[in-house]
Amino acid sequence: MIRAEILTIGDEILYGQILDTNSQWISAKLTEIGVQVIRKTSIADRSEDLRKALDEGLSRASLMILTGGLGPTLDDITKPVLAEYFDSEMAINEDALGLIKGFFEKRGRVLLEVNRLQAMIPLKAEYLQNKMGTAPGMWFDAGNQRAVVSLPGVPYEMKYLMEQHVMPRIKERFSLPVILHRYMRTIGLGESFIADKIKDWEEQLPAHIRLAYLPSVFMVKMRLTAMGQNPEALARELDAQIALVKERLGDHVYALEDVEPIEIVYRLLKEQGKTIGSAESCTGGHIAAQLSSLPGSSSFFMGSVVAYSNEVKKNQLGVSDQTLSDHGAVSEACIGEMAKGLRRRLGTDLALASSGIAGPEGGSDEKPVGTVWIALADEKAVYPRKLNLSGASRENIIRATTLAALNLVRLHLTGKLESRP
Amino acid sequence: MIRAEILTIGDEILYGQILDTNSQWISAKLTEIGVQVIRKTSIADRSEDLRKALDEGLSRASLMILTGGLGPTLDDITKPVLAEYFDSEMAINEDALGLIKGFFEKRGRVLLEVNRLQAMIPLKAEYLQNKMGTAPGMWFDAGNQRAVVSLPGVPYEMKYLMEQHVMPRIKERFSLPVILHRYMRTIGLGESFIADKIKDWEEQLPAHIRLAYLPSVFMVKMRLTAMGQNPEALARELDAQIALVKERLGDHVYALEDVEPIEIVYRLLKEQGKTIGSAESCTGGHIAAQLSSLPGSSSFFMGSVVAYSNEVKKNQLGVSDQTLSDHGAVSEACIGEMAKGLRRRLGTDLALASSGIAGPEGGSDEKPVGTVWIALADEKAVYPRKLNLSGASRENIIRATTLAALNLVRLHLTGKLESRP
C-alpha cells in the first residue's frame, strides 16, 4: 500500500493561533483512494526543520504532501528549501507569471517584485497551475517512485490544487489498493459497554478489516475499514460484518452512515410530515437549536418554550402548582405536563420536554446533579424517560439530554418507543 | 527556552475522520507560559510508530505531550507501549479504580473488566487524577530534565488534566522565562478593520512585545505578549499599551480579560439584579442556550419563546397579523413586538428578540440571506438594530446574531445603548 505523509509548515500552527484543517481534508481525500496516511507533522518556518522533515518523511513514505510557506514574504521558506533540497535552479514560469499579473490587474493592485518572484519555480519541479491564488503548486520526483508535492496553505487554494492536479497524478502514477469504509453511529451506550458486547465479534475480524471507536458525549461512532483488491468482495464482507454488529447493538444504532442524530430526525419528520416543538428547562434551548440547525427546518419545527423558571412552566406551559409542590420540576409528572402543554399551545404533532439538574449546584440526595427527565408527547400519549447523567459536567449533561431527547423522536417515528421500558 | 512537542495518537486522525483540535489548544496553552512548541505529530494506533515517535521527540524536545489511545478497547495502545518504553511494571492504582467505580455506580452501570483495567498504571508513571472520565493521565520522567505526559484524547478530559495537573507541574519543574499576557476581547469589528485602525500603534511596539489576532465569528481576541526579566516593568508596559489600543476601539472592546461575552452579561445582570428572557426566530434557541449556559443562570434567566413559525410569533408573543402582512417577520416592527410581547408575558426586566434570514434558502432582493433584526426591550423602550451578515454561512449568521444580541444587553447595562445610532 502507498504510504503518505502530510507536512504543514508555519509558526502560526505551532503557536496554536490557527487550527490546521488542511491536513484533515487531505487525509480524508487520500484515504478515499486507498493511500495510507501514516503520519502528519507540523513544523515551524525554519529551513533546517523542513530539510530534516523531508529526510525523515521520505525514509518512511513514498508520497509527501506539504502545505504552507509559499507566500511572498521572507518567512516563506518552502520553495527555496525545496530548490536546494532537490538541487535545482529556479526560473520564472511564464504561465504562472501570467496568472499572477492577471490576479493583480483584476484587483487593480500594482504588481510588486515580491509578487513577480512567486512565479519563480525550481526547474526540476512539475508546475501545478493555481487559478485561485498567486502561489504555484509544485510536484517533485524524489526518485524510487517517491514524490514531494508542495501546496499553498490557504485552504481553498490547496483544495483546488489537490482536486485539479494532485489527485489525478496520484491515481495515474501510483498503484493503489482498494480501501472501503463502513460507519455505524450509536447513541446512549458507552464505548466500553459496546466493546464488551462485541468483544468476540471484534476478535474474529479478519486482518484486512479494522475497527475504530470514535466516542463523543452520549454517542460512539464506529468505523470498519477493509483493504484488498476486489471492491465487490470487500463491500460484501463489510456489509456482512456490519449486519453482525448491528444485531448486537439493536436500537442503539441510529445510522449506518456518518451522520448526526438530528439529520436522521430531520429525515423522519419530513418523510412523515410531522411537526414538532420543545418545552425545555435544563436544556435551555439546545433542543430547539438542534431542531432549527439544518436548512429547511421551518417545514417541521414550529417553536419552543424555554421554561427555565417555575413561573414560566406554569404560565406558558400550564404546569400545575400541585405538580410542582408535590413532585418538583424535575419529575415525571412535571415533564409530562410540560410536553402536553407545549403540544397543546403550539399545536404541533409532537412535543419534546426536558427537566433536570444540570449542576454544578442544585443537587440533593434524592435528586443529585445529573438527574434528568425527558419526554415525548404525541396525540395519544406521553413517553417519559429518566436519565442518570451524574458525574458529567454541566455542559455534557445538557448535551447528553439534548441527544437523548432527539433519540426519543427517532425511536417514536420508527415505531420502537412503545416497546421500550 | 523549553522546547516541547505534541503527539496525537489515533487512526481516526490519519484517516481524516476527526479534526484534531487538541493540539491547537495545547499549543496555545504552552505558548502562553513561554514553552516553545517546535513540532506536532500525528501517528496511527501502532506500537512501533509510537516507540519511534517517542525516540525522535525526546531527541529534540524536553517535554512531550501525548493525547489519545488511552481508551478501554483493543485499539488503544498508548499505555502498554509507554509501560514497555519506560521499562515499568503496571499495577492497579486504587485512587483511579475508586474514581472509575464511582463513575459507573453514579450511572448505575456495571463495572466491566475492561474498565477496571483502565486503572492499571505503569509504576514509574506519576498518576494524574482524571475526574472527567475513566482514563487516568500519566507523567513520566524521561531523564535529563525531560518528561513525557500522556492524556486522553477526549477534549474535555484532556483540558481538565492539562489545567489541573500538567500546567502546574510544567511551571514548577521547568525554568520558564517571564512571560506576561494581556487580552482584549472585541465584538462587532473585523480583523482587517481593527488592524487598519491600530496600524501605527502596532508598528511602534517594542521588539519584546508581540501582538496576536485571534479572530472568530463576529469577534476578535487580541493578545499582547511581553517577554523579559522584570515582571513589574513588563506589567506596566503592557497596561500602558493596552490603554492605547482600547481608546482606538471604544465600545467594541467588551473585556480586558479572556472571557466570552455571556460572562460579562452574566456579571452585569447579577450586579444590577435584572431578569431577562428571549424571543427568538432565526437564532432558534441559541440566545437562550447562552443565557442558561453558566451555573446560577436561573437567578436572572427566566425563559424564552422560540417563535420559528409565524403562528407561534402571533399566539405566543402577540405579534399582530397587520405587522406580519405589512412588514414581514424580518422587520423592525416585528422584532419590536416580539421583544415587548416576550417581556410582557414572562414579566422580565429585559427581553431580547431576533428575526432574520439565516439561509441558505429564503432570501430575496429586498431581504437577502444575512438580513437580521435584533432588539432589546426594557420597561421604557425598545432598542432595535439591523445586522447585515450576508456572505456568512447559516451557522455563522446564527452565531453572529446571538453574539450581537448579548452585546445589546452589555451596552444597555453599561449605559451605552441610547448613545448609539
Molecular structure report:
The structure is a homodimer of 421-residue chains. With 421 residues, chain A is an alpha/beta fold. Chain A has three domains: 3-173, MoaB/Mog-like domain (Molybdenum Cofactor Biosythetic Enzyme, Chain A, 3-Layer(aba) Sandwich); 183-255, 2-Layer Sandwich (Alpha-Beta Plaits); 261-413, Alpha-Beta Complex (Maf protein), CATH 3.90.950. Chain A has 16 helices and 17 strands. The first copy, chain A, has helices spanning 11-14, 22-32, 47-60, 78-85, 94-106, 113-116, 155-173, 191-197, 199-203, 231-249, 261-272, 286-291, 310-317, 321-327, 332-346, 394-413, and strands at 3-9, 36-43, 63-67, 90-92, 120-122, 125-128, 137-143, 146-151, 178-187, 209-216, 219-228, 253-255, 276-280, 301-307, 350-356, 371-377, 382-388. In chain A, the strands form four sheets. Chain A has a six-stranded mixed beta sheet with strand order 2-1-3-8-7-6, sandwiched between helices. A five-stranded mixed beta sheet of chain A has the order 14-13-15-16-17, with helices on both faces. In chain A, strand 16 and strand 17 (382-388) form a beta hairpin. In chain A, helix 11 runs parallel beside helix 16 (394-413). The longest helix of chain A is centred in the C-terminal third of the chain and has 20 residues, at 394-413. The two termini of chain A are 49 Å apart. The model of chain A has no long low-confidence stretch (mean pLDDT 94). Chains A and B meet through helix 2, strand 2, helix 8, strand 10 and strand 13 of A and helix 1, helix 2, strand 2, helix 5 and strand 13 of B.
